Amino acid sequence: MRVGFFVGCNTAFNRPDLEKAVRYAFPALGVELDDLEGQSCCPTWGTMPSIDLAGWCAVGARNYALAEEKNLDMITVCGSCYGSLAESRHKLLSDPELKARVNAMLKSIGREFKGTSRIRHAICYLYKELGPEKIKEAVRHKLDGITIAVQPGCHALWPSEVYEDKEEDTFHPKVLIELCEALGAKAPYYSRLLDCCGMGGMRSTDMEKSFKLVEKKLNSMKEEINPDLIVTACSSCLIQLDTAQGFLQKDRKINYEIPVLHYMQLLALCLGAEPGQVASLGKTNVQSVVNKILEG
Amino acid sequence: MSNAAEAVPEVINLSAGEKGFVDEIKALGATHILDCIQCAKCAAACPMALAGFPFFNKRVIQAILLGLKEMLLDDTSIWACQSCNRCTEVCPRKVNPFEVMQAMRRVAVREFALPTLAIEGIKSLYDVGHAVYLAQAHENRVKVGLPQKPPSTVAHPTALRELQALLEQTALSDLGIIPMGKSGVKESCEV
Ligand code: SF4
Ligand code: SF4
């Protein structure tokens, strides 16, 4: 198996330990990664999609063209990249006029969008193409006795109409839960499991309102399941849940800290990766949970 | 929801609404806006509404239908939309409220009513190929055993030039929101 790795901005620049985790875990499970040299931003929602629909699709289509030239699907660990690329592809494939317009733009740079490559959500890819059983067999460290609060992230779920990788029931997601259970952990339901993390446009527009959502979400986790760890399927959720806790503590809004990891980081650790490389750039202290993992 | 009441005047002068506003919105992508029946399922699902932004999906749609363009431009709510598409998923009329939010942003951009941070992100996208970019990231990248630069436009000047050539054919060049044609790499940008 071989896929293009669509790195995305936040993973490459904010959390390269997550990028490293992807580069460790996929090959360890027999999935080869291609770098798709020359890829760009997806582009993210606050930029081209907010300005020019065709321009948005053109930037997305250029990224697709790089994958199509190599006959590869792409995987991403970022919800925004998944959402933006899935939507622009859906628009291009359902609107021939738009596709023609975008291809005329791409022609000027010697590229073409055909629609043969897909964007895959890394977590759903793991679930569908490898399956929880295979992951269970491959891991060296088990998470017995660890309770996880999962954060699937909006862009893994909606709009299900345009997503290649989707849950059977988008309002009762189970992919991330089952993947955490495959590592030996418990991942119980909590009432705000589906809540948005407040990252992205909301955080840039009004940090206080954005953090109010995080606070609600964290309290629901803490009170209902008291987790050892939060596990996200999205790099933006990772950054938000990880960095917001410090601010909330300082403002005396919360008096606890829950370590946060992306599922790819957790998986890499369980597969035997070096914690300093795959889980070292967060603000929350993951040391105690990493120690537990290494003992397991 | 405390500030929702403050943000909207008690009496709305309907004759002050902008004619043709709906058509503008439709042309910019909100194709199905007229199918909205104001049932509020989208609002019930929207994190913006939960966080207390006055103009969440249902209200934006209603304001557009009333032609209240200025009122929408005066408020930053539309920029807080998370693109989460909960609204699209639950709308019984297939209005695609998210697309309405995006179309409203496209109107705002044409009126230059866009937040500084959005401009920064666009400039960064043009200059380096990434809307979110941290020039100092190479230190952390090396620390975790990665090359200084990701294999993107950042490491490939010809690929960046390609992307810029594309962007120069979009509405960005007509709008003149950012300097184009000559890129200067900036320090960092987070959107
Ligand atoms: S759910 Fe759909 S029909 Fe109902 S208010 Fe929202 S956009 Fe309108
Ligand atoms: S896409 Fe925007 S408007 Fe729709 S539910 Fe999400 S935040 Fe609300």
From TrEMBL, chain A:
The keyword Repeat does not apply. InterPro entries: Cys_rich_dom, HdrB/HdrD_reductase. Residues 3-85, 148-242 form the Cysteine-rich domain. Pfam families: CCG. Keywords: Oxidoreductase. The keyword Oxidoreductase applies. GO terms for molecular function: oxidoreductase activity. This is Heterodisulfide reductase subunit B. The lineage of its organism: Bacteria, Bacillati, Bacillota, Clostridia, Thermoanaerobacterales.
From TrEMBL, chain B:
Keywords: 4Fe-4S, Iron, Iron-sulfur, Metal-binding, Oxidoreductase. Residues 69-101 form the 4Fe-4S ferredoxin-type domain. The keyword Cell inner membrane does not apply. The keyword Translocase does not apply. Pfam families: Fer4_8. Gene3D superfamilies: Alpha-helical ferredoxin. One of its GO terms (molecular function) is oxidoreductase activity. InterPro entries: 4Fe4S_Fe-S-bd, 4Fe4S_Fe_S_CS, HdrC_iron-sulfur_subunit, Helical_ferredxn. GO terms for cellular component: plasma membrane. This is CoB--CoM heterodisulfide reductase subunit C. It comes from Thermodesulfitimonas autotrophica.
